[in-house]
Each structure stands twice: as structure tokens, then as C-alpha cells.
Design a protein that fits this description.
The chain folds into two domains: 2-130, Impact, N-terminal domain (Ribosomal Protein S5, domain 2); 132-194. A hairpin with a 2-residue loop joins strand 9 (158-165) and strand 10. The model has no long low-confidence stretch (mean pLDDT 89). With 195 residues, the protein is of the alpha+beta class. The chain contains four helices and eleven strands. Strands 2-3-6-4-5 form a five-stranded antiparallel beta sheet, sandwiched between helices. Helix 2 (77-86) runs parallel beside helix 3 (106-123).
Length: 195
């Protein structure tokens, strides 16, 4: 299964009715990164009026969060999150740092401003497609090679390592779907997965 994310961190600055909006988008892989990034930007932009953010993590959009940081409820984090979702991105966080310029934007104006900041930065990002891979160790006896090759022929795989130990063949393979196969003549042992 594949998913879309951004290739690298990017930053954009925009002025809307005298308020300065600094938008930063970063690739992330788990929720633990969120707190450290938020802390980093809180320190870097210590004098900002608001530092709002939204993120989506997980290949199936498992984790999502929107944070308004003092803006009226639902006017900052949710609009940012909606843009991430509309663009079908995951493993991404967008921060929008606002320096108030003296002109109130109102509820609709805030929603438009935060949405626009998020949309513009994503539109300028390099979007990449990542594929999730599963790694297996396949073990079978030499005498069962023909049978093992028939089974393996039904699976689209990449052979990484092939070794021999006594009367056994040991393969390490990479495939893009999880399988659950166990037969008396051939054994698939799940090792790990990565993106």
C-alpha cells in the first residue's frame, strides 16, 4: 500500500491585512515528533501571537490533530487539517505562526487565511509517494525447491538475500503486501516492515 507525503521541510511567509503568517510544513513519522517540533517553533517564534498546527500520521490516516493556540475554536487548526486531508497527504505537519497586525479578521477571515496558508505551502511542496514493504524470511528444504518456487511465483517479491544452511534454503524477500502463509514444506517468517 502506498501513500502521499512531502519530500522535505518548507517555509512560506504571507501578509494578510497586516498580520504576518509564517507557514512551515514538515514530514513526520510519529506523534512523538509533534511535541519537539512545537517546542522548537515556540522557542523560535517566542513573540508570535499564535502558533497553530495540524497533522496527519499513518498510512491510513490513523492519527490527526488540529490545534488553534488561542484563535477562536475551529478557525485555525481545523482549516489547516482540512487542506491536508483534501490533498490526501499523511505523515505531515503544518504550523502556521501568526503575528497579529492590528486588524481583526473575523471568523470567516481567519478560516480563509489559515486555509490559504496551508494550501499555498502544500501546492509548492514536492509530493512523494512512499510504498510500504514487508520483509520475510522464507525457509525450505532443498528437496522442496520446486514446490517453493511455485509458491513464490504466485507472489510479486524482490529477493534480497539467498543463503544455504545444511539442507535448507533461506531467502530474505521484500513484498508490498502482508501475507500469512505457513505450509509444512515452506515457512514464511515475518521479519519487519518499513516505508
Amino acid at each position: 500500500m502506498s501513500f502521499k507525503t512531502i519530500a522535505y521541510t518548507q517555509k512560506n511567509i504571507k501578509i494578510i491585512k497586516k498580520s504576518k503568517f509564517i507557514t512551515i510544513v514538515e514530514p513526520i513519522s510519529d506523534k512523538n515528533e509533534v511535541q519537539s517540533l512545537f517546542k522548537k517553533y515556540k522557542e523560535q517564534y517566542y513573540d508570535a501571537t499564535h502558533i497553530c498546527f495540524a497533522y496527519v500520521i499513518g498510512r491510513e490516516f490513523n492519527y490527526m490533530k488540529a490545534y488553534d493556540d488561542g484563535e477562536p475554536n475551529g478557525t485555525a487548526g481545523i482549516p489547516i487539517l482540512n487542506i491536508i486531508k483534501i490533498k490526501s497527504l499523511t505523515n505531515v505537519i503544518i504550523f502556521v505562526v501568526r503575528y497579529f497586525g492590528g486588524i481583526k479578521l473575523g471568523t470567516g477571515g481567519l478560516i480563509r487565511a489559515y486555509s490559504q496558508c496551508a494550501k499555498e505551502i502544500i501546492d509548492n511542496c514536492e509530493i512523494i509517494i512512499l510504498q510500504k514493504y514487508f520483509y520475510y524470511k522464507v525457509v525450505y528444504k532443498l528437496k522442496n525447491t520446486k514446490f517453493a518456487k511455485q509458491i513464490l511465483a504466485s507472489i510479486s517479491y524482490e529477493k534480497l538475500i539467498e543463503s544455504y544452511e545444511d539442507d535448507r534454503v533461506i531467502l530474505k524477500i521484500r513484498i508490498n503486501t502482508k501475507i500469512n502463509i505457513f505450509m509444512s514444506k515452506i515457512e514464511f517468517i515475518f521479519i519487519k516492515h518499513d516505508y
